[in-house]
């Protein structure tokens, strides 16, 4: 698995609602949020319904916070390359994104018990390439 970290700017005059993402590198892409888990540890979980970005506003998808998670990555994701994914919005519009892959060691989150990831924790997380540094605009 790997994650995408970026800033999504709404350049329009009405709110936009990001529902989902898709990518040729992953059969399952989820919108994730990070919440306080049991024992005070931060835990990530799927964010049902996605994210709303206000008119003229932005939303930061970052390590240790909201992010896009690519599960079951089907091809090697190597630092220094790029990966494409598509953001899908409630109004039916889409936004193609190309992101640079960088090595990332993780923000030390766990998964909320019962999450749809198939595991409740990520002990010994090793450095994983992640997509970061992208700014995408829509509106």
Highlighted features:
mainly beta; Immunoglobulin-like; 11-stranded mixed beta sheet; 139 residues; single chain; globular; 0% helix; 11 strands
Structure description:
The chain is mainly β and 139 residues long. It has one domain (2-138): Immunoglobulin-like (Sandwich). Helix content is 0%, strand content 53%. The chain is built from no helices and eleven strands. It has strands at 2-10, 16-22, 28-36, 42-46, 51-53, 58-61, 67-71, 82-89, 94-104, 110-111, 128-138. Strands 1, 2, 3, 4, 5, 6, 7, 8, 9, 10 and 11 form an eleven-stranded mixed β-sheet that branches. It is globular, with a radius of gyration of 15 Å. It starts with a strand and ends with a strand. Residues 108-129 have low confidence and may be disordered.
Write the layout of secondary structure elements.
Blueprint: E1 2-10, E2 16-22, E3 28-36, E4 42-46, E5 51-53, E6 58-61, E7 67-71, E8 82-89, E9 94-104, E10 110-111, E11 128-138
Parallel strand pairs: 1-11, 4-10
Antiparallel strand pairs: 1-6, 1-7, 2-5, 2-8, 3-4, 3-7, 8-9, 9-11
In summary, what is this structure?
Residues 116-139 have a biased composition (Low complexity). The protein is 0% helix and 53% strand.
Low-pLDDT runs of 5+ residues are 108-129
Biggest sheet details: 11 strands, mixed
Radius of gyration: 15 Å
Q: How would you spell out the order of helices and strands?
A: EEEEEEEEEEE
Q: Please state the structural category.
A: mainly beta
Counted up, domains total: 1
Q: What is the CATH architecture descriptor?
A: Sandwich
**CATH homologous superfamily annotation:** PCu(A)C copper chaperone
